[in-house]
Design goal:
The chain is mainly beta. The chain has strands at about 10-15, 20-30, 35-40, 45-50, 55-60, 70-75, 80-85, 95, 105-110, 115-120, 130-135, 140-145, 150-155, 160-165, 170-180, 185-190, 195-200, 205-215, 220-225, 255-260, 265-270, 275-280, 290-295, 305, 310-315, 320-330, 335-340, 345-355.
Length: about 350
């Protein structure tokens, strides 16, 4: 079946950093597979993706010179039309729109900065408005559900920054930082759908830290830590790649991505050294987590995403030539391997759009 044969109500987008492209796939729910639709040229080392809140625009961060964010209009058939780009003052490991869709937030691992960029009424991102120094190795950034505050992880300092956010401007909150377990390397994070908790993945510990979110003050308080790896997984604690001595081939924890189902009951984590996906059960009322299972997946799974219905998960690997489509069991959270589809070189990021 080709794209010309059908119209899809859900489309998956994947960045291929090695090819400089974005792949588009239609989700065929009847056949339970992803159908390749198109390959859109982007730029060398295109990596993080972000969707506008109305799902009409897709943004891509380029981590090669010139550093910039690309804007694409998502057409009714799911194909992409490039609009323009805005300059970024750093190689951004993560981008995300604010909740209004008027600003693009970005975090730079190598530059240890965060930034905000304007998005105009046509969905086009402009040059960065402000670029601020952050803690060491900023890695992810996102606005709270009410859009009044912003958090950013500092992988190198084991902290999260807490900002007030107004008219595209970031101002340190009081307190400006909250600590994460030493040596954990906070990387990506997600909000609980009910807005009460934030779950932070430790790249070097393979654990998930739960924070309670005070919506009024925009501050976080520590709740608990849960390992996202099985006890049988024989991996040493991770560390920044630049700190690993030459010739040291120790198998170390290298967690990558984290996502939660729309009902807030299951959390998933990818680990790159073992090439696995882990499932955790979430108590929506307490924020407590329970490790359930871990299973093999694509080689070096840097990115994955859950579709808006919570029924499917798509995972890609930087060292894999294919992606995997999984079905999510709503009761147990179990992942069932459904099918595979080809990807480009160094596939690393996934976004999923469901059309009305």
């Amino acid at each position: 079946m080709s794209h010309a044969d059908t119209t899809f109500d859900t489309v998956v987008y994947v960045t291929n950093a090695g090819d400089g492209t974005i792949g588009s796939y239609g989700l065929d729910r009847q056949a339970q597979r992803l159908v390749p639709m198109a390959t859109t040229p982007a730029a060398e080392n295109v990596m993080p993706l972000a969707l506008s809140p109305d799902r009409r625009f897709l943004y891509a961060g380029v981590r090669s010179e010139p550093l910039r964010a690309l804007s694409f209009r998502i057409e009714p058939d799911g194909t992409l039309s490039e609009l323009s780009s805005g300059a970024l003052e750093g190689s951004m490991a993560y981008i995300e729109t604010d909740r209004s869709g008027r600003y693009l937030l970005a975090a730079s691992y190598g530059g240890s900065v965060v930034s905000t960029s304007p998005i105009d009424e046509h969905g086009v991102v402009g040059d960065a408005l402000e670029t601020l120094p952050s803690g060491k190795s900023a890695h992810a950034i996102a606005a709270t559900p009410d859009n009044r505050y912003v958090f950013a992880t500092h992988l190198g300092d084991d902290t999260l920054a807490q900002y007030r956010f107004e008219d595209g401007t970031l101002t340190p909150n009081d307190p400006p930082l909250v600590d994460v377990e030493s040596g954990s390397g906070p990387r990506h994070f997600v909000f609980a759908p009910n807005g009460r908790f934030v779950f932070v993945l430790g790249e070097f510990s393979g654990s998930v830290t739960t924070f309670a979110l005070d919506a009024e003050s925009g501050t976080l308080s520590h709740v608990a830590v849960c390992s996202a790896l099985p006890d049988s997984m024989a991996l040493a604690p991770g560390m920044p790649q630049e700190n690993i001595p030459a010739g040291d081939d120790t198998q170390r924890i290298w967690a990558a991505d984290i996502h939660i189902t729309p009902d807030g009951r299951h959390l998933y984590v990818s680990e790159r050294t073992s090439s696995t996906l882990s499932t955790l059960r979430v108590d929506p009322d307490s924020g407590q987590l329970e490790f359930i299972a871990s299973q093999p997946t694509v080689k070096q799974p840097r990115g994955f995403e859950i579709d808006p219905t919570g029924r499917y998960l798509v995972a890609v690997g930087e060292r894999s030539d294919h992606l995997i489509l999984y079905a999510i069991d709503p009761a147990s959270g179990t992942l069932e391997h459904l099918s595979e589809a080809p990807v480009g070189a160094k596939a690393n990021w996934v976004e999923i759009v469901a059309f009305d």
